[in-house]
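Purpose: get a first structural picture of the assembly so the mutagenesis plan has something to point at.
Setup: two entries, given in the order below. No constraints added.
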Amino acid sequence: MNSLRLALAGFLARTVGFALRIAGSGGTSAPGKLLLALAPAAITQLSTRLARGCAVISATNGKTTTSAIVAEVMRADGATLVHNRAGANMAGGIAATLNDQKGDFGLFELDEFWLPSLVEQLRPRAVLMGNLFRDQLDRYGELDQIVDRWREVARSASGARLVLNADDPLIAGLGADAAEPLYFGLEDADAGSTIPQHAAEQACCTVCGEQFVYTRYFVGHLGHYSCPQGHGARPTPEVSATDIELDGLSGSRFVINLPGASFEARLSLPGLYNVYNAVAAAALAFALGVPSDHIRSGIEASSPAFGRAELLEIDGRDCSIMLIKNPAGTNEVLRTLCADEEPRSLLIALNDQIADGRDISWIWDADFEALAETSGAVICSGVRAVELALRLKYAGVEPARVTIEPDLGQALQRSLASTTGRLVILPTYTAMLEVRELLVSRGAATGSFA
Amino acid sequence: MAETKLRIGALYPDQMNIYADRGNIAVLSNRCKWRNIEVSVTSVGIGEALDSEQFNLIYLGGGQDEDQRRCAADLIENKRAGLVAAAENGSVVVGVCGGYQLFGHWYELGEERIAGVGLLDVETTRSNGPRLIGNVAIATALPGCPDGALLAGFENHGGRTRLLEGAQPLGSVVSGHGNDGSSGNEGCRAGNVIGTYLHGPLLPANSWFADWLIAAALRAGDGLPQLDDDLEERAHVAACRAAGVKPD
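Result (structure tokens, whole complex):
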């Protein structure tokens, strides 16, 4: 009875999804929601059919890119994937992905807020908790609440191996509640900095409440830390990256160390934050029993995920799209950008839809001051273009460099006209979808949800 | 003007900074620098006493519950006397969101009651109802400003704040929730002591109010020299529009 109901509900949801795509409204969550309304247990029922089981990934920053790297690794390992690669990461999106795709292994990035209930329904073999940063407070509430919810997952996720970032004290602290956590982190004393960035969260020792002290900061509050009263410190990661060499916007090279194996890898994604995504992916794959040569070839085969450091060509010019959505992520993008000396012009697009965060306060926590040291035109676009331009004024960016053009199509046109070098586009989430649509219509990018 | 330097005391910038409070400080200090008014920003953290003579503008932002609890205890122990003296001297004291709540008499979270410093005659209770979240615009009545001058911002709070008898709101809600979602009041003002739920942050979206605070802190009765505020005014209009309000 149950399986008949599921089959019918699944058929209906696929039909609705098909009709919506014909009608030209891609990326909607309606089919998944319909499926769950008709068959509330669909996620559990469909996921038990995955012969190799499934794994889930959550983090404030990097979950789409980490999933994309894991996908390459699992493909190298011979898996066929059921994967929400376009980032539909709440219940409806997961249900639709399971209903629409056929494969033997499920790979799901999950929204931070949805992680507990979806872990319960999916019963994954491994859960990767990547990092937690301040993000969209209007939607998620305060960070403490997410940490509490994730602690419940660490306590109760029976049968799932927990893969945790040793360098994020908010995540590593959850290991105390887990059966046999696997830690990953960076072990390179030349990477990062000894000075904290502005957006750093204040992480405190859970025993005495004192703030952790750091010998090294890598990305925001991710680094090498310990309690000043000696109550605890960063766990030593079993999976780590060492000998990291960053190469501007074009990528990086590093050594991945696994228990019993290590190898050098070249990654074609820029910045230290993507080294984190690669080492996180390596740790998750190791926890799933994937051999190291498949992990390596997966990392090296990885290309940028949807809108994350994608490299494109528009009208003969090189163009990069780098998503910005919160202070810590934006700081890493700006840092990577400013380390690259190639001449360029910049298009930044700030929207305030629900998926972007209705509250645009966060732009004042991101270090746009870094742009004051650079040169080249900056076009501010999106629904809140004016406030973005104001942020740049107070960041010390020369006003003569800054143009306001709220319409993204116009802004793209003007950016292309004003540069002969590379065009770098930094959009918030819905602006990124819009930019990609524009580029697809110009033939510069391929369809988004292919 | 009576004073030539804006001396900002930023309370607990490491803990109470959740809604980009740094943006408010950046606007205050840049708008002084651009007018060749000297400015200093000094952090006053947990365990440090607050000397009321050292500052003419004191700022306290918002934090997460746990940080707010720690800062509340320290505020009573190390800073209450300094804050009360600063308010009596006519210094400007600004609390945004959590800072506003702690300037009141208390903040009640279920069974627990966190004591505030009592600079403002308000009381706050954490509601079981939804958080009050969204764009907001309020009409103010400040000395020396046009009646009804708008402040725009974003609010996100679980607490419901009640004005005690005789307390004056900072403004009346034109769009959004305000203190408690029902009274139509937003914030509280007693002389130069100001509490509000508006972030966004507050001062980038309302540069005229930043100047009002600076002038009050410097006792600059004649106001401040004009700046080129074309972009600031456009940003103010955009923030009002986000709240669904069309400014004049």
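Chain A has a mean pLDDT of 89.
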